[in-house]
Amino acid sequence: MNRGDVVIVDFSPASPSTGIRPAVVVQNDRDNARMQNTIVAQVTSNTRRALEDTQLLIDQNHADWQQSGLRLGSVVNCSNLAAVRQSDIRRVIGSLSSATMQELDTCLRAALEL
User: Fold this and answer.
1) Which domain holds residue 45?
2) What CA dihedral angle connects 26, 101, 110 and 47, to 10 degrees?
3) 3-state SS string over 29-60?
4) What is the model's pLDDT at position 86?
5) CATH number of the domain that 12 lies in?
6) What is the number of domains present in the chain?
7) What integer best gives the mean pLDDT of the chain?
8) Minimal CA–CA distance to 38: which of 82, 101, 97?
9) Closest among 21, 61, 18, 43 to 104, alpha carbons compared
10) Residue 68, class by beta-carbon neighbours within 10 Å (0-12 exposed, 13-18 middle, 19+ buried)?
11) What is the pLDDT at residue 41?
């Protein structure tokens, strides 16, 4: 598992109402390799807040659309972070480029006021 991977996570053990949904791995690769948990930003197809500084829109017009593995236009919601067990990650469906991860870092900084 690598930073920037788009994954399908079963959030139901910690949050039954959240269920199974996509997320982006935002934790660093060193910790992903040595820890049983990882930090992810949840992805939603509800794009009405896409222009907020804590959201990153990934849609058909985005350079990483095809490699993301997402089927619908979506936002990575950096205000909705979660630490999940790596065993709750069902599969990797895609990845985001380093350029897109830099954009995501900007959203993370806004969400965390860093």
Assistant:
1) 5-112
2) -90
3) HHHHHHCCEEEEEEEECCCCCCCCCCEEEECC
4) 96
5) 2.30.30.110
6) 1
7) 95
8) 82
9) 43
10) buried
11) 98
The token pair that represents 111 in the structure block: 């969400």
Q: Of all residues in the chain, what percent carry a pLDDT higher than 90?
A: 91
What is the value of pTM for the model shown? 0.95
Q: Cα–Cα distance between 97 and 77 in angstroms, integer? A: 17
| The token pair that represents 41 in the structure block | 């930003």
First-to-last C-alpha distance (Å) of the chain: 25
Q: What is the pLDDT of residues 64-92, one digit of tens each?
A: 999 999 999 999 999 999 999 999 999 99
Question: With the CA atoms of 49, 71, 89 and 96 taken in that order, what torsion angle do they form, in degrees rounded to the nearest 10?
Answer: -70
